[in-house]
């Protein structure tokens, strides 16, 4: 049974994507690698913020994201989404289809749904989803200890990351510099694959 560790840069990018579009569904993919039983989620690529289905734009974005991941010697190891309503924490049907697509190439894929109620609290605002045994059904993962608690198989590399992410939005307004594939389609100068303009680095 593998474990998952989310690095600072990856969490902050998910947070910025949700903060930039607080009243819209957003989604993206997780980049990382598996080593010694641990999937390290090192980065994310934000895809869309006005999607309703597995659209041609989604497919193009996924293809480009996969190519970028391979160019930096990483794999697409998961998916994240935020829902339109902050109290909605269900993995959308399109999300299930995307993670099943990713699972054909990376068997230990994971999905996260952003917890809108926790987003600005300084607590971890991610709800993990893993597939049910022998099924394509995805449910919130009940772990003992719970996700992100000491000793859990789903952890943050830096426990201070959620509070730092809040400060980057509240004090530095960094979410305004962040762009996804939708933004890139409207302004091709936006580097959605890397988001180097945000200058996020791991501590």
Please give a structural write-up.
- This protein is of the alpha/beta class.
- It has a single domain, classed as Cytidine Deaminase, domain 2.
- Helix content is 28%, strand content 25%.
- It is built from 5 helices and 8 strands.
- It has helices spanning 8-20, 56-71, 93-103, 161-170, 181-186, and strands spanning 3-6, 26-35, 38-48, 75-82, 110-114, 126-131, 138-140, 154-156.
- Strands 7-6-5-4-2-3-1-8 form an 8-stranded mixed beta sheet.
- Strand 2 (26-35) and strand 3 form a beta hairpin.
- The longest helix is centred in the first third of the chain and has 16 residues, at 56-71.
- The protein is globular and about 40 Å long.
- The mean pLDDT is 91.
- Residues 4-135 form the MPN domain.
- This is MPN domain-containing protein.
What attributes does this structure have?
globular, 203 residues, alpha/beta, Cytidine Deaminase, domain 2, 25% strand, 5 helices
Q: What is the CATH C level class, in words?
A: Alpha Beta
Spatial strand arrangement across the major sheet: 7-6-5-4-2-3-1-8
Percent strand equals 15-25%
Quote the CATH topology. Answer: Cytidine Deaminase, domain 2
The span between the termini is: 28 Å
Q: Which structural class is indicated by helix and strand composition?
A: alpha/beta
- The helix-strand sequence is EHEEHEHEEEEHH
Q: Outline the biggest β-sheet.
A: 8 strands, mixed
State the low-pLDDT regions, or none: none
Helix count equals: 5
Q: Output mean pLDDT.
A: 91
As for the number of domains, it is: 1
Total number of beta strands:
8
| Computed Rg | 15 Å
CATH-scheme architecture: 3-Layer(aba) Sandwich
Indicate the overall shape. Answer: globular
């Amino acid at each position: 049974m593998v474990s998952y560790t989310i690095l600072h840069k990856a969490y902050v990018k998910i947070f910025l994507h949700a903060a930039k579009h607080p009243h819209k569904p957003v989604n993206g993919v997780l980049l990382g690698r598996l080593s010694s039983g641990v999937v390290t989620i090192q980065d994310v690529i934000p895809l869309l913020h006005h999607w309703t289905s597995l659209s041609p734009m989604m497919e193009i974005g996924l293809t480009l994201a996969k190519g970028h991941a391979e160019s930096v010697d990483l794999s697409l190891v998961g998916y994240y989404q935020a829902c339109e309503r902050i109290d909605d924490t269900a993995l959308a049907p399109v999300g299930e289809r995307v993670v099943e697509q990713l699972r054909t190439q990376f068997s230990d894929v994971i999905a996260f749904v952003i917890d809108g109620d926790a987003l600005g609290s300084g607590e971890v605002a991610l709800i993990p989803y893993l597939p049910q045994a022998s099924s394509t059904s995805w449910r919130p993962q009940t772990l003992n200890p719970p996700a992100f608690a000491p000793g859990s198989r789903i952890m943050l590399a830096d426990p201070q990351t959620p509070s730092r992410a809040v400060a980057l939005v509240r004090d530095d307004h960094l979410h305004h510099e962040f762009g996804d594939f939708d933004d890139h389609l409207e302004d091709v100068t936006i580097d959605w694959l890397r988001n180097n303009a945000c200058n996020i680095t791991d501590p």
